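Predict the assembly for these two chains.
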Amino acid sequence: MRLTFRVNGRQQQADDVWEGESLLYVLRERLGLPGSKNACEQGECGSCTVRLDGLLVCSCLVAAGQAQGRDVVTVEGLASQAKKRADGRSGGADGRTGKAGTDLQPLSPIQQAFIDAGAVQCGFCTPGMLVAADELLERNASPTDADIREALSGNLCRCTGYQTILAAVRLAAARGTADTAGTADTAGTGG
Amino acid sequence: MTTMEHTLGASIARLESRAKVTGTARYAAEYVTDDALYAWPVPAGIARGEITAVHTEAAMTDPAVVVVLTHQNAPRLHPVEDRTLTLLQSSHIAHRGQYIALAVATSLEAARSAAGAVLVQYKADHHDVVLAEDHPGLYMPEEIDGLWPGTREHGDFDTVYATAEIRTDAVYTTPPMHNHPMEPHAATALWDGDALTVYDSNQGSVTVQHTLAQLFGIDAGQVRVVSEHVGGGFGSKGTARPHVVLAAMAARVVGRPVKLAVPRNHMPAVVGHRAPTIQRIRIGAGRDGCIQALAHEVVTCTSMVGRFVEAAALPSRVMYIAPNSRTAHRVTRLDIPAPSWMRAPGECPGMFALESAIDELAYVCGIDPVELRIRNDPQVEPDSGLPFSSRHLTECLREGARRFGWHERDPSPGTRYEGRLLIGSGVAASMYPVVILPSRAEVRADPDGHYWVRVNATDIGTGARTVLAQIAADALTAPLGYVHISIGSTDLPEAPLAGGSSGTASWGWAVHNACVRLRGLIEHSGGSVPAGGLSVSADTTEDVKSGQEYARCAFGAQFAEVQVDTDTAEVRLRRLTGVFAAGRILNARTARSQFIGGMTMGLSMALMEGSTMDPEFGDYAERDFASYHVAVCADVPAIEAHWIDEEDPHLNPMHSKGIGEIGIVGTAAAVANAVHHATGVRVRTLPIRPDTLLPHFA
């Protein structure tokens, strides 16, 4: 089939798609978006988590055909999504400049919080974890620890022991909406 | 040049974290290559025997399928020491799940479908896959992994034990466990004539490079291995694994790049795992709790294709005063997948047994388990007689007890109820040896003040990139932002693997030496870098020989509080506190995460992890995350990791000990000891699931 859908706000098309192949495969192998990870292929680990029309899904369990005409957000689109949300609130976000004169795209608050809280280790669970955490904060701006633990329990991490991930979600929540996707300070200067 | 005084030891954010949070960090299966094909392996359907026929006709009917490799048409490989890597070379099957064919197609789905359509006929032989204490094949290895003697004796254990005032004797068992890094083993391979490039998920690309060169009969210089980002390993990526060999083999046959990612449910059979252990520990002590005799005897298994032995008795050679001791291993070869390293191999299961036994001794003696450990803390390493370069176990125990509030604890087991919950706390020690391997590194200074550090280190999630940049910045007295680091490729100066908690010390030493010498050169040339730049190489082959006159280990203490539901027998961890003495901590943020990550894997081991060898089929029944449970966010309460300042001049220029593995050592015993304190039930078999405990509440 010809698959037409929106990914991270951009119209995408893929031809000769077998309806039964996974959305994860389409994203990774056909659209060149390997941010979503393939770690279990059966919906147990959350590494492939994306938003499908806003809904949190394991993209490994979504058949490509099911994405037809729908809206998908992956880790690659988190920053632009957050910026869109922030723009919607303030009428324009100001992306600051990163280190050494390099212009860096602004990150979403949850991405920045993951960096600041040291929630990233090997990085393989990170994309799915970020998408899930972002979705949690969208529907619950000040989650309790129990809320966070429950919301992220479909996302396995083998490195961190979850403490820094929890801290990152708390940090993003504490920074709240005032601290928008415009914070682009990066690695090397964290405290 | 600006002086940055506190780069080393500071809480620096990971240098590659931006790439990882934006999804732009590339892992082994994610390199864009024109014309790449996908490979899907076919696992053996019997545990032992011969392939009598392979039919690939059905698999080949799909035009998307390019080739199906079997032992009949695969290129011939040269022999290597690791026999799990000489794939598709014969009709013999040494364990169920061994890869026996490979489907290669233009899409992953077509490759998978073709793999499923390969028909294999077998002549199955009787297989033997279950470890037992009295297995007839048990033998005593003289050496374990070529590193340690299998058996050590001091004094006269039998006589002293027989006459000791206090005697304990118990058997502890640990199940097979699986590393399951989040990134399954994966490789993308491409050939250009006789030159091979692989993007591979491993813990050390140098051994992968040499192994591939040997297998394919080419010069190591013709093999390039890139491992820029690796999604965890925990030992299972320490050396080349079957996926990279198959990817390279297929790429050679089809003349196109080939990608292969191991399906999660194949991993228990092909990437190594922690072998089960049966450990008997006997302790003879005085009424004062002082150990006079200690025997730690391990029964375990290995495979027909490997020689790895889980050296679980090693901790008893290091931990406590034991003038009369026996530490011994017996192993049998079974028709099982090859066991290999899993985070703190040996120490991890061994310390579950030893630290449980020490807790039992403390109860029998009526002595606080913290105090009993302190009483048996040796001045020199019991087995070697060497002085410790530094040993702060007692300080860790005291500091942990203080932070945890241990001294308010009522020692009597099975007495603290909160409704239907029983509450208890337990303690155990942690230990991991210092390993430092030779490494090379290069650093170049540019006239504009930038430094370029090159070392083939591997960052499997530890923060290697970041800490090496810190080490360089510190040695150069340069701002971190001016230090650029390249790791993760065999194009870079040769460096050892990320394993045995040796990485930072090994790579860091070479980086440190190169940077110190470069700084000297710059100072020599009047403080400025000439137009052409300056560069320095270092090789620590000689340096790492120092310090051998000491026993060198990191130590720690972990305190756990659990609640046990008396209706369901579910154990939940309430809190876990660890205090470690691991030399100088080089990055507080990444170090804390390493300790806590290890402790969490230890909690997972205590309560959840373990698989079952199916005696009929000869494979592990729990092969995916639905059946092999690992701790998730909701299973993990507040975990704290602390460390004490430890000065040890006998290690390396950074004064650091490895921290990647010690966190998992002892955790399971702390939890099991807490379960005993809560319930009065001593569980000596992991994991502690409801079915283990429930019969005791009937």
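Chain B touches chain A through 65 residues (CB under 8 Å). Chain B has a mean pLDDT of 97.
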